[in-house]
Design brief:
- By secondary structure, the protein is α/β, with parallel strands linked by helices.
- The protein is built from nine helices and 19 strands.
- The chain has a seven-stranded mixed sheet, sandwiched between helices. Strands 1-3-4-5-2 form a five-stranded mixed sheet. Strands 6-7-8-9-10 form a five-stranded mixed sheet.
Length: 394
């Protein structure tokens, strides 16, 4: 097994549980190819762990084991899956929910591996091609432990489709029966269709599940606007919670149509609500003066990297200021960010700037991060990406 000497300043970093070593922070890993397991050496060339090597990523090494009794390989991958599955069974209320994250990469000590579960259909997505040589072993562990009807491989994160995608990286069925065009899930009793093959991420945004439940709790009697609505999760939650009218806005026409279909699936009359295919910024400009009792702002990441953070700050501030102007006095703003490059303290400062621009003081009611099925190592702040804030607008 290839080995690499970890600089002294990073050995505590590894021991504390941070799962990444960057290419510019460690010596060259001689004789290793993407997907190889590498022994990590500390002071005196003493083994301190094992990592998965990626020759083409800024994250050169993803730590998979740091304990003496852990030997990387199929048996360890299976134990990781078993531990993660048990954690979900004991920390989530699954009595009326059948969609949740089974494996959250670094948080479940399989860095770069994501598995989501949708009513019996498991969807696997990888953040690095380093796991491809181990895909058969991962598949066997997931099938044996989770026992899904189907296991669909979604490919690599950030990968665009096309004929130029190498065969091993292409989406395909790994086990079981092919998933249907749309999988019907239940989320705290709310029914939604999920397209696991073509939908964003693995099909939908499961990390907002508990926040959708919160919106359902506070929506009664509140006319609601949902910006960046995708397939209408927050919209549906508001309507089921008693919002008399919900306006869903998304740039993608197919997402807006899917949101309408989800209303029908829950015996809600879509004719009593509004579904708009439009750019959210343009919609807010075009409807200036229109007001709502509850506005949900859940945009895609504006900061995919560190270089884009300053521009993202300005965009988030402008967006939420425009949204705030459409919140009636005493109404609610629900604002979210999914960028790991915008930490919670920065996001709260951004909302403060939005409140200043809109001249609408805010009172915080809820400040939330990821739900229990998205665990994060304490010493891995990069993993704390989700921010969700519910605030009352004066």
């Amino acid at each position: 097994m290839p080995a690499v000497l970890v600089p002294d300043r990073l050995t505590r970093h590894v021991a504390a549980g941070h799962p990444w070593l960057y290419v510019d922070a460690v010596p060259e890993v001689v004789g290793a190819r993407t997907g190889d397991l590498v022994t990590l050496l500390g002071q005196g060339r003493r083994p301190i762990g094992h990592a998965l090597f990626d020759a083409d990523s800024p994250i050169a090494l993803r730590v998979v084991a740091t304990r003496k009794d852990e030997r990387p390989g199929p048996a360890l991958w299976r134990r990781r899956v078993e531990t993660a599955w048990l954690l979900r069974q004991t920390t989530l209320d699954l009595s009326a929910t059948d969609a949740f994250r089974v494996l959250h990469g670094e948080g479940d000590r399989l860095p770069g591996v994501v598995v989501d579960f949708y009513a019996g259909c498991a969807v696997l997505k990888l953040d690095t091609p380093a796991w491809l040589p181990h895909l058969a072993d991962l598949t066997e562990a997931i099938v044996d432990v989770v026992r899904p009807r189907s296991l669909w491989f979604k490919g690599l994160s950030g990968q665009r489709g096309g004929d130029d995608v190498p065969e091993p990286q292409r989406p395909r069925l790994l086990a079981g029966e092919p998933p249907p065009p749309l999988v019907m899930i239940r989320e705290h009793g709310m029914r939604m269709h999920v397209d696991v093959r073509r939908g964003q991420k693995t099909g939908m945004f499961l990390d907002q599940r508990e926040n959708r439940r919160l919106i359902r709790q506070v929506a009664r009697g509140r006319e609601t606007l949902n910006l960046f609505s995708y397939t209408g999760g927050f919209s549906l939650a508001a309507a089921l919670g008693g919002a008399p009218r919900v306006t869903s806005v998304d740039l993608a026409r197919n997402a807006v149509d899917a949101a309408r279909d989800n209303f029908v699936a829950n015996d809600l009359d879509p004719g009593a609500h509004a579904f708009v295919a439009a750019d959210a910024f343009a919609f807010l400009d075009d409807t200036a003066g229109t007001t709502y009792d509850l506005v949900v702002v859940d945009p895609p990441s504006f900061a995919p990297n560190h270089k884009s953070v300053r521009a993202a700050e300005a965009a988030y501030a402008r967006l939420n200021a425009s949204a705030l102007r459409q919140v009636r006095p005493g109404g609610l703003l629900a604002a979210a960010s999914c960028s790991s490059h915008v930490p919670m303290d920065m996001f709260l400062k951004i909302l403060g700037e939005s409140a200043r621009q809109a001249r609408r003081p805010l009172r915080l009611l809820e400040v939330r991060g990821e739900p229990p099925d998205h665990p994060t190592p304490l010493h891995f702040p990069e993993g704390r990406y989700l921010k969700f804030v519910l605030a009352l607008a004066e």
